Amino acid sequence: MIPYLCLYNAILTFVLLMPAISKKGLQMPESPIRKLAPYAEQAYKENKKVYHLNIGQPDIKSPQIAMDAVAKHSIDVLAYSPSEGSNAYREKLAGYYKSKNIAVTPDQIIVTTGGSEALLFTMGCIADIGDEIIIPEPFYANYIGFAKASGVAVVPVVSKIEDNFALPPIEDFELLITTKTKAILICNPGNPTGYLYSKEEIQKLAKIALKHDLYLVADEVYREFAYDGASHYSILQEAGLEEHAIMIDSVSKRYSMCGARIGCLVSRNPKIMATALKFAQARLSPPTFAQIASEAALATPQSYFDDVLEEYTERRNLLVEKLKEIPGVNIGLPKGAFYCIAQLPVKDTDVFAQWLLEKFDLNGETVMVAPAAGFYSTPGAGKNQVRIAYVLNKESLVKAVDILRAALESYND
Amino acid sequence: MIPYLCLYNAILTFVLLMPAISKKGLQMPESPIRKLAPYAEQAYKENKKVYHLNIGQPDIKSPQIAMDAVAKHSIDVLAYSPSEGSNAYREKLAGYYKSKNIAVTPDQIIVTTGGSEALLFTMGCIADIGDEIIIPEPFYANYIGFAKASGVAVVPVVSKIEDNFALPPIEDFELLITTKTKAILICNPGNPTGYLYSKEEIQKLAKIALKHDLYLVADEVYREFAYDGASHYSILQEAGLEEHAIMIDSVSKRYSMCGARIGCLVSRNPKIMATALKFAQARLSPPTFAQIASEAALATPQSYFDDVLEEYTERRNLLVEKLKEIPGVNIGLPKGAFYCIAQLPVKDTDVFAQWLLEKFDLNGETVMVAPAAGFYSTPGAGKNQVRIAYVLNKESLVKAVDILRAALESYND
Predict the structure, then answer these.
(1) Are A353 and A36 in contact (CB under 8 A)?
(2) Mean pLDDT across chain B, nearest whole number?
(3) What number is the average pLDDT over the span A106-124?
(4) Which architecture characterizes domain B64-297 according to CATH?
(5) CATH class in words for B22-60+303-410
(6) Which residues of chain B make contact with A125, given a CB cutoff of 8 A?
(7) In angstroms, rounded to a whole number, what is the distance separating the alpha carbons of residues A37 and B233?
(8) What is the 3-state secondary structure (H, E, C) of chain A?
(9) Where are the domains of chain A?
(10) What's the rounded mean pLDDT across residues A15-37?
(11) What is the CATH number assigned to the segment(s) A21-60+303-410?
(12) Which of A284, A111, A84 shows the shortest CA–CA distance to B257?
């Protein structure tokens, strides 16, 4: 029996010698956009041209003034910056906010590595393991990732395509508030919905935050992208929210500088700022070159934004008009950002999106869309929706929608 | 009674209207180095010259080739890079590791925003809330921050100044291992100790990791800084650890590019890589400009490292020799990194370090040191120790130690 026992021990040892992945790691969501990547790779290999309607990477040029500032750097020792970001940048940033009618001091700004890190710091400051954050759904998919990483539960409140994804009734929020609820998180203008909250809607949210003593966190990275003359109303413009409002921002979309990885956390609550600073100190500092670019970008002339806004408005109009012509497609008119959610006449857009890449082409061309289920946390929600980003030029957008129309005509699910 | 009741309600409402900071946020440690900053600020205001022995920011120039690469950039749209880092960079990085006798493929590397993020991803992948990671103490203070942020408990195993901070006996580790223990984390060469683990010590750690099915995580960001002809032995050079070894790296110290914020996580465990990629995708990408600098830095000539090593060796020798001349000071000979722990003839170095800035000067000059208690998690440990970084030129180092000697002579605690 001895040899068998040894073998058994050897096998047991072998089985043991595989340390486990954490539950947290297993629960981290895959990117709903990036999980289609292998099928896109395959399409490239088959020499298909793929129109990317799936990503939030704008094709707009970054401001020349920002790119030049980096090219002109004269750094000898690429040193750590202060953990809260360089003083010069934070001072100028306060000036930018002032121009947007948001009165904040440099002390109320911590520069982060992208809006992503600002969200991670925020969750760390306001929520403990098992605490809950209410988010109108559909929402930016990575909110789930930051919540999982922080041990926080996302509680979705449903906003509806038939309402153009407007703020759900306040009663819907109140039904979800428990002793574990720490915050309401919104994205305004919204990714993936393109919805721009009105001043009245922000005020409704402010009231409920005050009433239930919750933080109101707003991801305002698409602030500049408000169309049809609508103006963006920041949670920091609302009086009485000093202790409650935490704003997340980023240069990624504003200046088409996604690769900079510079964002910020802005709050007038000194305890939040002191706590967020501790998270910031642990990771030492935000990237130096990108802070140079971001500081210089603040001098971008208004004409840059006017041009970008005009371009996106035209793209949106074209996209929505063309999509509406497709039988069975349902889409509203997004007022902000550069995304929209479209409902398609298919059962499951995960399957459809993969089919588009794997099985379909129109004269050697196809499109890649982001299945919307990944933007919902309610199981089964958004199955027949996709997020479309209008980050392609108009000519490409027209071609992409034509391909989508032809695909829907030949698709059977 | 009605008006009183209203007032009471009003007060109650006011009290309620202060949303709380999370326990996690309250428990996040302040930087032991940065908490003295206000006293340094005050010293500057009094026109004192302060010699900074407290920080890990090298004064060495970043490689010109890396700074030039950024200056020569021709980026139009500063786009996201792949979440795992640019392919070109990861391929060249695998080549760098090969030159260090570490055989890894680009797929076994995820580029992170500093070594900090690599540590955060690692903790997310391997440990759940309440799990434990054993770390030889004293250790890099921010390990506590990443652990708190991740909900993980740090369990210290004491290494001693009288042993020059060598690896504690393996029995000491075994006494601490519980069902909650997920990993042993080392820093090699060590910050703050300057200790370089021998191949034999790494092999002892490998054995215990395999025996108890633990991950072995090594922060090897000071790899290049090994003195007296000693060579660094990486955990990735040890056979049989494929599933267990996770290596943390960074360009910060290697190329004196702390402000780049580029690091990486390296492992041959495919499950770890797949899980870490999900954390990486949630934050989109590491910074683009800094990846350009880091990729270019890989072509830094060996002469750069030879010069740096010679300079640091001279600094270390000078520092240790001068410190040993001070009565009551105890210090070993660090074999790596650019730190050492010195035991001073004072009761509490937190008080002493503040006194140096607030109350002391020698001809208008003083020094700033890092109290070592912040590098210990055992309460009361390291109270009479400081961490000294030899990131100043030799002339300044001599002056700084002279000031320290004079300070100790006039200090009474």
Answers:
(1) yes
(2) 94
(3) 98
(4) 3-Layer(aba) Sandwich (3.40)
(5) alpha beta
(6) 21-22, 25
(7) 37
(8) CHHHHHHHHHHHHHHHCCCCCCHHHHHCCCCCCHHHHHHHHHHHHCCCEEEECCCCCCCCCCCHHHHHHHHCCCCCCCCCCCCCCCHHHHHHHHHHHHHCCCCCCHHHEEEECHHHHHHHHHHHHHCCCCCEEEEEECCCCHHHHHHHHHCCEEEEEECCHHHCCCCCCHHHHHHHCCCCEEEEEEECCCCCCCCCCCHHHHHHHHHHHHHHCCEEEEECCCCCCECCCCCCCCHHHCCCCCCCEEEEEECCCCCCCCCCCCEEEEECCHHHHHHHHHHHHHCCCCCHHHHHHHHHHCCCCHHHHHHHHHHHHHHHHHHHHHHHCCCCCEECCCCECCEEEEECCCCCHHHHHHHHHHCCCECCEEEECEEHHHHCCCCCCCCCEEEEECCCCHHHHHHHHHHHHHHHHHCCC
(9) 21-60+303-410, 65-297
(10) 83
(11) 3.90.1150.10
(12) A284
The more confidently predicted of residues B181 and A58 is B181
ipTM of this complex = 0.93
Cα angle A89-A304-A246, degrees, rounded to a multiple of 5: 45
Measure the CA dihedral A347/A352/A354/A360, to 10°: 150
Residues B164-178: tens digit of each pLDDT? 999 999 999 999 999
pLDDT per residue as tens digits for the range A273-317: 999 999 999 999 999 999 999 999 999 999 999 999 999 999 999
Q: Give chain A positions within 8 Å (CB) of B76.
A: 61-62, 67
Chain A CA closest to residue B283: A116
Selected residue of B13, B15, B22 to mutate for chain A interface (largest A Cβ count, 10 A): B22
% of chain A surpassing 90 pLDDT: 91
| Band of residue A16 on the pLDDT scale cut at 50, 70, 90 | low
**pLDDT for the residue numbered A1:** 41
pLDDT at A56: 79
Closest Cα partner for B340 from B356, B320, B326, B325? B320
CB contacts, 8 Å: A280 with chain B: none
Place of tokens 């005020």: A203
Residue contact A71–B76, C-beta within 8 A: no
Q: Which residues of chain B have pLDDT under 70?
A: 1-17
Top pLDDT among B10 and A55 is at A55
pLDDT tens-place string over residues A346-404: 999 999 999 999 999 999 999 999 999 999 999 999 999 999 999 999 999 999 999 99
The CATH code belonging to domain A65-297 is: 3.40.640.10
CA-to-CA distance for A399 and A397, rounded, in angstroms? 5
* Residues above pLDDT 70, as percent of chain B: 96
- Are A21-60+303-410 and A65-297 equal in CATH topology? no
Q: How far is B391 from chain A (nearest CA, A)?
A: 12
pLDDT of residue B2: 46
